[in-house]
User: What shape does this take?
Amino acid sequence: MPKKRSGGGLTTTQQAAKFLGVAALSGVVLAGIALPAAGALGLATKGTVEGFDEIPANLQTPPLSQRTTILDSKGGMIASVYSRDRTVVELKDISPYMQKAIVAIEDARFYKHGAVDLKGILRAMNRNVQSGGTAQGASTLTQQYVKNVFVEEAGDDPDKVAQATQQTMGRKIQELKYAIQVEEKLGKTRILTNYLNITFFGQQAYGVEAASQRYFSKSAKDLTLEEAALLAGIVQSPSRYDPVNDPAEATKRRNTVLQRMADVGDVTQAEADKAKATPIKLKVKKPKNGCITAVSGAGFFCDYVRNVFLTDPAFGKTKEDRAKIWNRGGLTIRTTLDPQSQQSVQASIKSHVYKSDKVATAVTLVQPGTGKIMGMGQSKPYGFGPDETQYNYSVNKDMGGSNFGFPTGSTFKPFVAAAAIAQGKPATQVYSSPYKMPYPSVQTCDKPYVNLNGEQVPNEDKSEHGPYALKEAMAKSVNTYFIQMVEDIGLCPVTQMTDKLGVVQGNGEKLPQSPAIALGSKGLSPLTMASAYAAFANRGTYCTPVAIESVRTADGTSLPVPKTRCSQAMSETTADTINTLLRGVVDSGTGQQAGLTSRDNAGKTGTTDFRKNAWFVGYTPNMSGAVWVGSPTQTVEMVNITIGGVYQAKVYGGQVPGPIWRDAMTGALNGVTAPSFNTVDIPDPKPEKDDEGDRGRPGPGGAKPGKPGKKPGDKNPFPGMSIPPNMIGGNTGGHRGQTNGGTQGP
Assistant: This one.
């Protein structure tokens, strides 16, 4: 069914009644004008007049909704988004042909009557009764403008739109009074300007400038006679007279407008005839709206910005207030996205993971000390087609991400170490670290956790058993070491530390207090991880992530924006200790393939059960980044799999996510200063001498070649270092815990 302009669709009887009623009402309210029919019709009742007088005197004209422009930190365009595609222009920027065409076909007596054209009402009523239909309406341009204001104010609320367009006497009375007020306040020139900017021209185009760009790819000031007539004709029924989908019907309507222009003397008959003979020549510019249009793969960041705007109280007290500002548009939003970093993220993703792969990757870069999101991308593009998605794998569910985030594996271990060091544990802390052990009963912030089912946690390989000191345990990512550390300090210090670092699950809930969290058993987002690790780089100060630097409205007003909130999550010494430990991971541990060669850097690998997720989270003093690789549905085990055209027998955190991180960071930091970490001295354990000579630290096989290794239960192999008595020795069992990737991995 054709889409009718507001006011259409009434039966002949209803139309006649409407005209008669408005005419009668006009006789009551317009000074010096009276209709003879008013008294006979009996419509100008006392109640009608009183109801009219009670209508508010001032029409609230809302700013017209326009497109919003989202920019990167350097001012480059990211995307254009809008609720209604509209660009407001002044009358001088609209072709005179367009001005004349819309007046001729919609309200030829516009400049000769007031808010209501009584002569037009009677003429239209007479013609409609004679034709047996609704061949002609009687609303003036001013009345139509008022109705469009009601529709604009209703926004996307279907109930409010229905109220704004309902055909009742009350609505007509309201429109009439507002029309009178608008005529007095604005004048004809401004009313025509506003009308041409507010009205709908089909094809998602609101206002004549957007319509001119949509159908002819040109500005409204450059419209020719036949083009202007075509656009003017669309207004009555945008779907019926759509030149894209029904050029024949649109041509008939255009020619009707041209003839009307000739009839009222706006053009000569010869000019009208020549224009009628000209075929419609469209140069359609397809609508480009939303984050799907974002450049450099920034669609997901664009969507994140939108979600920030709609959820942060900085932009309005209520959800409705924020949505109203967003839908009104006309905003210029400058973001934190660094174009160099974003391009580097996308280039790295493209070279390592294909969008058609069974698994995906997500990469997020954050600036320590400011919380600014510098880059955000993923291998599955933003969209609706095959191998595309609208889920942002880098963020939490409430910001458009996956339901629960992704298990992080051993990348969680630095949080445990930070909590232990903050509790006074030395950086040389030693635990027995058996190959396998049961999850211990451990104290939480409330009641003790008890392993009722006897679940056990192993290391990646049977060759991995201690004793280990913290430095080596971190480099090799020894699971049982960190489980023993949790048993030693309790879970409360760990969750208190992660709370300070903004670490929540992907669904927004706090981490549960169970030992398994030490091995990254719960789902987190890359943005959460990159922001938390940025606190290590920032010497213990955590800053909440931010994406928006400034917002300016269409009239140049600046809106307040959410600011990062920074707080000291740990002492500088604790952070410096973690930095020193994690430098070892990229220098000689599981993250060697991720290490940068030109600047100080640190990081941690992570791989989860059945290799469904692999991570690398790392940082320099001035950039933090998190890389996740895995199945968004958690159904793919990354064994004997091809990723980015490269076959992988087993995926490790240092082997696939690591190089993605390395390449993304290298490009992002190209030309950027390379400051150094503040580090601490963590001595290596000194071997104990005995009668057989030097006894080395247990190697991958548990002993130095040719020398017997220490067995669980032997005396302390590292004199001068504290090993709690209950940490010597261990148990075995069959439960498979989070993997650590062995010497290559997570």
